[in-house]
Amino acid sequence: MAPTLKTHWMNVLGYAGLIPFLGLAALTGIYSGTEIAERFANYNLIYALCIVSFLGAVHWGLAISLSSQDQPVYLAGLDQSEFETRSFIWGVTPSLLAWLAGAFSPPESTLWILALILALVWVVDQRFLKPMKAFDAYLRLRNHLTLGAIVGLLVTACFA
Predict the structure, then answer these.
(1) CB 145 within 8 A of CB 76
(2) What would the 3-class secondary structure string for 18-85 be?
(3) Phi, psi of 34 (to 5 degrees)
(4) Which of 21, 44, 74, 91 is deepest in the core (most CB within 10 A)?
(5) Under a CB-based contact definition with an 8 Å cutoff, are residues 12 and 144 in contact?
(6) Residue range 11-32: average pLDDT?
(7) pLDDT over 70 for what percent of the chain?
(8) pLDDT per residue over 65-95, tens digit each?
């Protein structure tokens, strides 16, 4: 039987993580057209870069924790080597995509691109983690958090 996550702190900290996305979006809307709105939008952009990197790191943590088990119990039909390879490679991909967006796209486009990256990360996580029933609670939470983060970034982009 697959282990289950204890979800209290995961939920509390996850939903608290929406406060910057949504709060900064609201502040950008309130101060739309001003220099302070641009500053709030930049704060949301920086926060999104951090969160995207964090989401990739989840896969590194998963691969590292499973590598210490003699027989990983929830690899969803993959052999351990294939699972680790996929997890380590995907684990760095979101942060590299976010860095490319932040470093090389025009500032007015970066929030839109980060929203797309969050959607991509959500799709990949659904595909990679859904077969492993141990991640059901995490994926349910991610549905809400990803939607909230994307809405926050899109509202910010509209008013920046």
Answers:
(1) no
(2) HHHHHHHHHHHHHCCCCHHHHHHHHHHHHHHHHHHHHHHHHHHHHHHHHHCCCCCCCCCCCCHHHHHH
(3) -115, 170
(4) 44
(5) no
(6) 97
(7) 92
(8) 877 776 666 566 777 788 888 899 999 999 9
Q: Is 31 exposed, middle or buried (0-12, 13-18, 19+ CB in 10 A)?
A: middle
pLDDT at 119: 98
Contact (Cβ atoms closer than 8 angstroms) between residue 151 and residue 25: yes
Mean model confidence pLDDT for the chain: 91
Which one-letter amino acid corresponds to residue 84? E
Closest residue by Cα to residue 148 from 109, 110, 122: 122
Higher pLDDT, 13 or 128: 13
Indicate the DSSP class of residue 105: S
Whole-number Å distance between alpha carbons of 56 and 95 = 7
Please calculate the CA angle 15-120-2 and round it to the nearest 5 degrees.
65
Q: How many Å separate Cα 68 from the centre of its chain?
A: 25
Count of other CB atoms within 10 angstroms of residue 43: 16
